[in-house]
Amino acid sequence: MTERATPFYCPYCGDEDLRPAEDTHGAWECRACTRVFSLKFVGLVVRS
Ligand SMILES: [Zn+2]
After folding, report:
1. Phi, psi dihedral angles at 45 (to 5 degrees)
2. Residue 48 CA, ligand 1 centroid: distance in Å
3. Taking Cα atoms as reference points, which of 42, 38, 46, 30 lies closest to residue 1?
4. 3-state DSSP assignment of residue 28
């Protein structure tokens, strides 16, 4: 399983203009609101 996840929308402003951040590995930069964020894989849901 890869660690890389691709966001389609900025979680803060909802814009789609995202690109990988140059300074931080695995981080994404929103061109609209200039926020830099990263996605973290937490785990899988175990259904009983
Ligand atoms: Zn944004």
Report:
1. -80, 130
2. 37
3. 42
4. strand
Evaluate if pTM is beyond 0.90: no
Whether residue 4 contacts residue 40, with contact meaning beta carbons closer than 8 Å, is answered with: no
| Ligand 1 geometric centre to CA of 3 (Å) | 22
**CA-based nearest residue to 11, from 44, 43, 22, 32:** 32
Closest of 48, 33, 34, 43 to residue 1, by C-alpha: 43
Coil/strand/helix, residue 41:
coil
Chain segment 1-48, per-residue pLDDT in tens: 455 678 899 999 999 999 999 888 889 999 999 999 998 889 999 998
